[in-house]
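Researcher: Excuse me, tokens okay?
***
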Amino acid sequence: MLAFFRVVEVGKFIRIPFSNCVQIITIPLLINLKLLLRRPRFNLYHSIDGSRSAKISMPRKDFTVDGNVARCNWMITSLSKDGRIMEARRLFDEMRDPDVITWTSVISGFIKCGMIEEARRLFDRVDAKKNVVTWTAMVGGYIRSNKISEAEKLFHEMPNKNVVSWNTMIDGYAQNGGIDSAMYLFEKMPERNVVSWNTVVSMLARCGRIEEARKLFDRMPERDVISWTAMIAGLSKNGRIDEARLLFDRMPERNVVSWNAMITGYSQNSRLDEALDLFEKMPERDLPSWNTMITGLIQNGDLRRARKLFNAMPKKNVISWTTMITGYVQEGESEEALKIFSRMLSTNGAKPNQGTFVSVLGACSNLAGLGEGQQIHQIVSKTVYQDSTFVVSALVNMYSKCGELKTARKMFDDGMTSQRDLDLDLVSWNGIIAAYAHHGCGKEAICLFNEMIKSGFKPDDSTYVGLISACSHAGLVEEGLKYFDELVKDGSILVREDHYACLVDLCGRAGRLKEAVDFIERLETKPSARVWGALLAGCNVHANAKIGKLAAKKLLEVEPENAGTYMLLSNIYASTGKWKEASRVWLKMKDKGLKKQPGCSWIEVRNRVHAFVVGDKSHSQSKLIYSLIRDLHSKMKKVGYEPNNVFLSDEYEDR
């Protein structure tokens, strides 16, 4: 049994002594963090098994006359469902005359266990007994394995097809983005059932072709609760929330999924009061209802109400806990995120999953909490997630942000040896490149990038953010420009505002401010606050008042209440001797009632966190600390250092 964690507060920082109660944790559910705080997904295909993968048909009734064969069929089906496929295969091989149900059961068992090639070898045997269910199971297996071309070929070879066969292939196209192919097959169907209609309506709504979806919905000869729910979810996703509500009110019957879909729709469209009103009116709620409402509140920045609802939940699962932890991390309240994680572990209920670990390690990264991060690493090492690329990447990031670059690199090297999925491995490469960027090791980041390319990995948008940032921090301007040019010419990667901001930062740090301005002016999209902020920071470093004034003006148009912008502009004027302008900006900031939060740093010594704010003298050893600082300043001056006092604020000078 997990012991309760004792949370100790030191100042405003949290110390969580995890290590005394690390035990093996069995995780029943895998949640991908990327999907965690997106809008909840409703699986509306009752021709497939609750997930997005095609259902593997397992015979429910056995009409075999021979009692021995019937018993063997039952045992093979049971073993296959339990994942004991090799035992099922041995029993199958011992049978004298397996019937079509036997063949279908063992082929479906191999498919369910991910052994699609072995399933196909059985399927192709000369003595194989097959019917439409067997063929459909094989088509569904290929779809489940993301082998859509093989599924398509087998579907066209089928001697006989039923409505389930057609639905399976249509859903396969829908899963793999083949919208037009799915529609073509739908139009060719000799007969359709409600599942056929639901599949294409959901598909069209999901990909933004909402008008076509609505026309098909209106044409449906019969509708079930899934049909209505799919249409409501589609309209909500595409911003037509009032139309979705009209449809919701017209529903002949509703289930809890219908209510959840409507609540999600209101949350997606930032209409929280209506979402909460509907939540209160629900005749019954399940766990997804609570999680949907909490997620919606967090997505809209209402963490206070989300926490209140979270506390009122009659029961919580791993999604509930992880959503709340992620919400606090996103809002910059990492200490509270660690508190919730501690509570989660002490409840003996939900166990952390991949998403939980990624979020809570992110909290440790934000706090530079190496101790907590190491303890969470211990917990991870006792779970099935120790080889997860997302968790390994989060650990790499945590150790990097805590100053342990060597440990981060070791995590990367150890993690890469155990990974098999090429697409997921890219996450780890991006993580270690970003780690070197964070430490200003540009050349090492470039070497890693080249090594990644040689290993057969194609960089994505995140790769280039880390790479260009590394060049920026290391002053490798020409290299950074070259990689940005590569990114633009690639064409397959979406260039986003992070890339623009990195390029402006690259030029700004190097003093090439005119180039940065020219680049911004050529952008086809409206520059974001991040882009203007990068330019303003460059102007501050190089004391360029003219461009700094432009950057500040544009930045204040986007973020009028940002005190930091006024501070930087005032410093730029002061550094160029324009004291009147500096004073005018400073007074304007004060008139608006804006105040920049003072910088804060902290250090851990002997399990105690010591926090410091600029000019603060509240520390018990402040006299000794300031004495040492004065001594350091004296030594720095002797070796030629000249302090730049123009950047000191009035508040600091007053002290």
In short: Confidence is low (pLDDT under 50) at residues 1-65, 647-655. The beta strands are 8-10, 13-15, 600-605, 608-613. The CA atoms of residues 95 and 511 lie 79 Å apart. The chain has 35 helices and four strands.
